[in-house]
Amino acid sequence: MMNRKFFREKLSVQKEDMFRISIHGAKGGVGKSTIALGLARELALNGREVLFIDRDLLGFASFLAGIREYGLLAKAVEGRGPLPLREIRMGRGTLTVLKLFGDGMRFKSDMAVIHADPALRAELEVTYREILGKRSYHFAVVDNLPLVTPSDDVVRHELEVFRAVYPSSQITRIFVSDSSRFCINDTMNYVRVVESSPDKVGFPGFFVINMIPPFRDQEEYLRVLREAKESLGTKGGVLIPFLEQLFQIKGGLESFPTVPQIRRMALNLENGTFEEFIN
Length: 279
Prior knowledge:
Helix content is 38%, strand content 23%. The protein contains 9 helices and 11 strands. It has a 9-stranded mixed sheet, sandwiched between helices.
């Protein structure tokens, strides 16, 4: 096994502070939502209070958590329906899943309606603040729709409310690609766009290459992780093999398998250190 190097600069996160982990991908189907959910699950199992903010188009995590109603944006527009929130005890911690949206492309029209109605927007912000303040969360894990940037309205407005509740929160981004060269290149270009945005807050954390086929030489992927660290400023890299059990989740969150690489990412984030390579 190779020697593991660590990023030694400790994060300035205090125990009472929030650490926000935003998961990004350049396209769908790379396992972004699965990795986001696995990371949130591991943090909760380690005794943390974790808020999972689901703003992916499909609402995969919300579905596994048993949320079948509209997301918070659609609920605000429709003016009806229960709060799309589930609290799940996991090990010594709690995983709270909030479906912000996840009802397909309707979030665009919902955003337009909310922007056009200041009273509705204010009501939505109050509701979101109340959810954020419901517990003293240690971590927030955000599952984003593909190709989202810090300048997008849905990102800026949500983050504005979030930071009003957690003003000292530390923020990192994790970028996920599948193992194809095409997707890796697209993801690296996407990282450049995100990290050059004047609206970005926080720093790039891990670059993850997911679904690596068996018997592939990992050296080519390790070169990608080195390149990402040198040219994109990521702090660490993760290689995750193709795992069939991740495509066979039939129950709820209790059926979610443990992935060693995701568990090590969670431990890194808890400790404020980034391994150069996790594989």
